[in-house]
Transcriptional regulator
Amino acid sequence: MRTYEEMKALALSRSAVRTEYERIEREEMPLLDMVLTALREAGLSQAQIAERMGTNVPAVSRLEKALITGKPSPSIATLQKYAAAIGKHVEVRFV
């Protein structure tokens, strides 16, 4: 049986897989890391976030899943509500 690292190395030996992996690391993981850090710092449950957003727990769960998978991509307005619920704000910059 192969280890996780061996399976990862095997998958990344394929150029298409490696290209997509690099894109995800570059484009998607920084956002996810920021969201998870902010969520951990806020120390709130999904129920507390839902209440602050004026929505329900399943909606917060779907949003958090979308942030992880990128599908569907949440709107800026939804991200702003989520950020406000956890005591943060959203900045969009082109650099």
Notes: The chain is about 70% helix and 0% strand. The mean pLDDT is 89.
